[in-house]
Amino acid sequence: MKRSFKFVCRPSFDGMSINKCLRDFLSVVFSLISFPMRIDRAKITRFRVNSETKYSENDVVAIEEPLQIELLHNNQRQTHSITMRTPGNDEYLAYGLLFAEGVITSADEIESIHLSKIKGDVETSDFEDSRFEANSIEVKLSDSIDLSSKLTPRKMTSYSSCGICGKTSLKALALKNPREQRKLHSEINPKQVLAVRKTLAKQSLFGGTGGSHVAGVVYESEVDTESKVKRHHQLDFDKAICFEDVGRHNALDKLIGSELLHNNLSKAGVVILSGRVGFELVQKVVMAGFSTIIALGAPSDLSIKTANQFGVTLIGFAKDEQYNLYTF
Fold first, then answer.
1. Domain-by-domain residue ranges, the chain?
2. 215-225 pLDDT per residue, tens
3. What is the pLDDT of residues 260-315, one digit of tens each?
4. 3-state SS class at 192
5. Rounded to an integer, what distance in angstroms lies between the CA atom of residue 197 and that of residue 73?
6. Cα–Cα distance, 242 to 210 (Å, whole number)
7. What dihedral do alpha carbons 321, 254, 82, 142 form, nearest 10°?
8. Which helix or strand (DSSP H or E) is residue 235 part of?
9. Which of 1, 47, 56, 136 is the most exposed place for a label (fewest CB within 10 A)?
10. For 170, which DSSP code?
11. What is the fold, at CATH topology level, of the domain defined by 190-327?
């Protein structure tokens, strides 16, 4: 069936009326076009309000949904946590979270991962609708793992802003068997630090919604010198590997999980973060063996103490013109 519409715009020399006329026209046009949405964002309608006018318009926001992480070990199932996250790269999130918490020490200790959808009391794994996203992930661990000394029970949901929320023992904050730290061969210059903001701002979800955090890593690459005998190492921030999420810790877990799977966290690099730096983020970086953090936001006192204790270079407030060096 054909769809038609009638649009009436009365001419006016009033600039505000012309702008409103154009907005109304575009709103009608876009309402007739169906754009496929990514699983990490959703369409909404909101009001734009200023001192003179109020009008509605379409917008896009980042999605935040629960993910229940189930552990299957020696034929026994237990719920590890429920975390609020942006859908996408859930497998990486599970690998990174379990590694950062010391449940696993390598990717090989996870035998399989199964994503499914929990709807009421029914669990389904066949997604006939491509928009039907998983909200439960089952992680089958190797039977050789001793979970009794590695798991700290959680009694509530872990929200996007804080992955530590819900742990019932302060012992869970202790670092467990971190990877050996991989020091950089090259020095970071101020221009590179100040370029981090532009690198992070290029990410798709942040660019489309302004509502996500970004965690990335920049690796060193070997470059031949003119003599072609010696090699020097160079950081290329244009080649940063980045992950996004509404939660800071989720974005970093996705990054660590990805690198654990792809290179076993064997490469030296700089971790870049879009927000403030709390203790847990430094803890995760230490567990993964990275030696340097550059963040756009502020660190906490505990994050500074942790970075100093484990020899991590911590840079914060990396803005366009200056930055703060807290530890080195």
1. 65-173, 190-327
2. 999 998 876 55
3. 999 999 999 999 999 999 999 999 999 999 999 999 999 999 999 999 999 999 99
4. helix
5. 42
6. 16
7. -150
8. strand 231-235
9. 1
10. G
11. Cytidine Deaminase; domain 2 (3.40.140)
pTM: 0.79
* Under 8 Å between Cβ of 140 and 99: no
Helices (H) and strands (E) in the chain, counts: 7, 14
Rounded mean pLDDT of 242-247? 96
* Rg of the chain in Å (alpha carbons): 23
Quick one: which H or E segment has residue 94? helix 90-100
Structure token pair of residue 190 = 């101020």
**Contact 284/305 with Cβ under 8 angstroms?**
no
Residue among 242, 274, 217, 209 nearest 40 (CA):
209
- CATH class of the domain defined by 65-173: alpha beta
Distance between CA atoms of residues 98 and 117, nearest Å: 21
Bridge partners of 327, per DSSP, are 314
Helix (H, G, I), strand (E, B) or coil at 84: strand
Q: Given this chain, do its domains 65-173 and 190-327 carry the same CATH topology? A: no
Torsion-angle region of residue 100: left (phi > 0), alpha (psi -120 to 50) or beta?
alpha
Please tell me the predicted confidence (pLDDT) of residue 307. 94
Q: How many CB atoms lie under 10 A from the CB of residue 108?
A: 9
Label residues 122-151 b or e (16+ Cβ within 10 Å = b): eeeeeeeeeeebbbbbbbbbeeebeeeebb
d(CA 283, CA 101): 9
